[in-house]
């Protein structure tokens, strides 16, 4: 059954742009050709005029820390999925790391965590979604559970080299090998715990407890040395690996070098490292600093420039948000109360602003082509994370489409956003371009800037491969 015809837009893929119509049958892209209007028979077909608009594959955000619903806050997962749709994202990957709503049982077993997360998110999302499990150092046998995890449709997992739930190097290496052997891929948060824990202890001993010392104690060297170690592990194991939220030039250099040596190394960066700098930590407003307490922290402008170069030359593979729906009035309020920086919640919201920041700062400023942006936000993340029906506008893929007006201008305000945070680190940014309509498997979720989707229409996407 034909259900949708998108007419006359500029259809963008990673390899080129062309004016074309898109015919959708049963939620799947059937044809992408010039002038398909003649194929539409019958009155039930939805015809959408995309003249003057870009038609992009929906963004695939592979790094979010969305919160699952709780009795006290039953709408957080759903509402962030709606926010993602408003921003032009049609599929997101969530982590179930401690703090996202997982129970103590989930922190002891990957499979228990998966069952719990699936139950908590069932029929709760407005867009398609998947999960990547966090491997906690507190788990009894996380490596032993990895093959069963892949069999259950989860082909990636994330390990942290820092924080109290970190994985030691021995188990990190074993997890990487085991996942790789099953066709999956380990994601790694690369920061060196010795350098960071020492710097934190020294700062606290000096009485430097304010939020800006969070950044001062997480050096680019700590990120670089950890990234270097992970590259060496992946080379020795001969498996793919994915570096999450890469933030600095030194770490990027290690990824670039590893790729040149044939390591199947992949790396992402995030909009905040591209659009914001460590100048934010010089603010005298404590809330404003707490807003940007994230790990790794924001870096100097020189690192920002290195990341843009990495996106353009392929050293960086994708952009994802690291969305954490923390609120200044709730999770971040500890900063105002004088709680030391090492106890303040880490993270910043971003699920709704991925495409708008990347387009405005990247394409509109001439740093990236629109085709490269589509590759970074949709095609490559879908490919690397085993989302085989996502990420491109071509026959056989899911009709996950974004109609984007490149001529629009607006000022970004938290009050206009729909996410479950109460701020955006990009407050006041002047944006070029705006999402007009969004379709997930051919069904409208956003139409002319309004939510028209349904809770539960988003499907869990099982994945059997990655890397
Ligand atoms: Zn993260």
List keywords for this structure.
467 residues; alpha/beta; 8-stranded parallel beta sheet; 17 strands; binds zinc ion
Structure description:
By secondary structure, the protein is an alpha/beta fold. Helix content is 31%, strand content 23%. It is built from 13 helices and 17 strands. It has helices spanning 76-86, 110-121, 142-151, 169-181, 193-206, 212-216, 220-237, 249-260, 271-275, 286-291, 301-313, 354-363, 370-384; strands at 2-13, 16-25, 28-33, 46-49, 54-57, 59-64, 89-95, 128-135, 156-160, 185-189, 241-243, 265-269, 318-319, 401-411, 430-440, 443-447, 450-451. The strands form 2 sheets. Strands 1, 2, 3, 4, 5, 14, 15, 16 and 17 form a 9-stranded mixed beta sheet that branches. Strands 6-7-8-9-10-11-12-13 form an 8-stranded parallel beta sheet. Strand 7 (89-95), helix 2 (110-121) and strand 8 (128-135) form a beta-alpha-beta unit. It is globular, with a radius of gyration of 21 Å. The model has no long low-confidence stretch (mean pLDDT 96).
